[in-house]
Design a protein that fits this description.
By secondary structure, this protein is mainly α. The chain is 76% helix and 0% strand. The protein has one domain: Sodium/glucose cotransporter, CATH 1.20.1730. It has 18 helices and no strands. Helix 7 packs parallel to helix 13 (309-318), helix 7 crosses helix 15 (365-390) and helix 7 runs antiparallel to helix 16. The longest helix has 49 residues, at 155-203.
């Protein structure tokens, strides 16, 4: 066993992976001539690669490290959310993707401009930027945990190393590099997860039959909870409704995912990529939850200061040399795929939603490319800075809860205003801005004053209904208005 002492072999595996993926990603970006290449891959990428990129993007280090911790501390109830995730993606594929492809759009928020005007487009894009900056800064910090354990480096050094290596291929390669590297990285971290499953079979006396038997006896195999208590996070109804609305928001209104879907060759390919990603996520979360059960049996239910550290400590302290390096490389794969996707989507929104309209730039693709790369560097620096600021705030909290909480606070407002644009012809720009503001502020109020009564999976559902209801109410007595009114 490695026993917590990183070996030369571990370092070699990690260094070879980091160097290889950085150079390959940069090589993929050769021949780019404009913003359409850099941010949309000329809309020519195969749906299979886009599907893998979508899954890799949403499977950050938090999934790799924290989801096993969820099963370790509880049971399999988290998997109920994935049922709603699939339903939500089917809804997005049917309702929102056709609207995006009809307009040949570059960002998700461009659709809102055609309906409510440039101000609403910028308002929603700014909400996306702030949310993505905060949530992905937390994800970047979480990646520094295993790197610090392996190398002994301080968190700030670990964060900067990951950020610098990721921005190299993102800056040079653009969305094409991001998607193809994501696809490979997904394979790597799944190999790492399967290696952990095999290691637990060998390390736990009796292997997986004994693990499942002891977990069953402790009630940790419980999957479905039909309770109507909204204060319980993982119930069938919270998963079905809360998970569906969360998925509709994250995959239908968040530029992080929508940008990937817009790189497909046509609408049908984009729909396939989105729905298939929902099926893949169910199996993926089941795998990581199973690892959590194995860790619970291996550590005999021992208490840890942070749930995020359970799997990381197993990887660093208990696995054979070389295998530790492979799994840490898998953690980097999950982190770099999410970080590169975030950087590129933030740069895309900055260039298309703010810079181009402000400068009245239309059709100057080469100039958009140059400015887009500048925004890439800016957002990379901000994400690294945000991760550094989170270090002193991380004690006594769980990173996955922080990241999901941040996104859930605003996703309902975003999804509600998109629904308003699609289904309420009389709604004006003022109605949309007021509605989204009310929806977000109301959910923040729930989070502050009633989080014990309303668990986070319900936040997007509540925010969406409030936003749509307020917007529809404000416009109820108006006749349909022209676009941008």
């Amino acid at each position: 066993m490695s026993g917590g002492a990183p070996s030369v072999l571990d370092f070699a595996v990690i260094v070879i992976y980091l160097a290889g993926v950085t150079l390959w990603g940069a090589w993929l970006g050769r021949g780019q001539t404009g913003g359409r290449d850099y941010f949309l891959g000329r809309r020519s990428l195969p749906w299979g690669a886009v599907m893998l990129s979508v899954v890799a993007t949403e499977t950050s280090t938090l999934t790799f490290l924290s989801i096993p911790g969820v099963a370790y501390l509880g049971a399999l109830g988290f998997l109920q959310l994935t049922f709603g995730y699939l339903i939500g993606r089917i809804a997005v594929a049917a309702a929102l993707l056709p609207a995006y492809y009809r307009g040949e759009l570059a960002t998700a928020y461009q659709m809102l401009e055609s309906r409510f005007g440039l101000g609403t487009r910028r308002f929603t894009s700014a909400i996306f930027m702030v949310t993505r900056l905060l949530a992905d800064s937390v994800r970047l910090f979480a990646t520094a945990i295993p790197l610090a354990l392996v190398t002994g480096w301080p968190y700030p050094v670990s964060i900067v190393v990951i950020g610098v290596l990721t921005v190299i291929y993102t800056y040079v390669g653009g969305i094409k590099a991001v998607i193809w590297v994501d696809a490979v990285q997904m394979g790597l971290y799944l190999i790492g997860a399967i290696a952990a499953v095999v290691a637990l079979q060998l390390l736990v006396p009796g292997g997986w039959p004994a693990i499942l038997a002891s977990a069953g006896g402790a009630g940790k195999l419980a999957l479905l909870d039909f309770s109507f208590d909204t204060g319980i996070a993982y119930t069938f109804w919270a998963g079905l409704l809360g998970g569906a609305f969360l998925s509709m928001a994250s995959h239908g209104t968040d530029q992080l995912i929508v940008q990937r879907l817009l790189t497909c060759r046509d609408l049908r390919a984009s729909q396939r990529a989105l729905v298939a990603s929902g099926v893949a996520v169910i199996f993926q979360f089941a795998l990581f939850l199973a690892i959590g059960l194995g860790l619970w049996a291996f550590f005999a239910g021992r208490s840890f200061e942070r749930a995020d550290e359970i799997f990381a400590r197993f990887i660093v302290e208990e696995l054979p040399r070389g295998l530790t390096g492979l799994l840490v490389a898998g953690i980097f794969a999950a982190a770099m795929s999410s970080l590169s996707s975030s950087i590129n989507s933030l740069a895309s929104a900055s260039a298309y939603d703010f810079w181009a309209p402000a400068r009245r730039i239309v059709g100057d693709d080469s100039r958009t490319l140059r400015v887009g790369r500048s925004f890439t560097l800016l957002w990379a620096a901000l994400l690294v800075g945000g991760a550094l600021l989170f270090i002193p705030l991380s004690r006594g909290t769980t990173a996955v809860e922080v990241a999901l909480g941040i996104a859930s606070l605003v996703y309902g407002g975003l999804l509600g205003v998109f629904a308003l644009a699609l289904f309420v012809p009389a709604a004006r720009a003022r109605d949309a801005v007021i509605a989204i503001s009310v929806g977000i502020l109301a959910v923040v109020g729930v989070w502050i004053f009633a989080r014990a009564e309303v668990a986070w999976p319900w936040y997007v559902f509540v925010g969406t209904l409030l936003t749509f209801g307020v917007g529809a109410g404000l416009s109820a007595f108006r006749s349909p208005q022209p676009s941008g009114a």
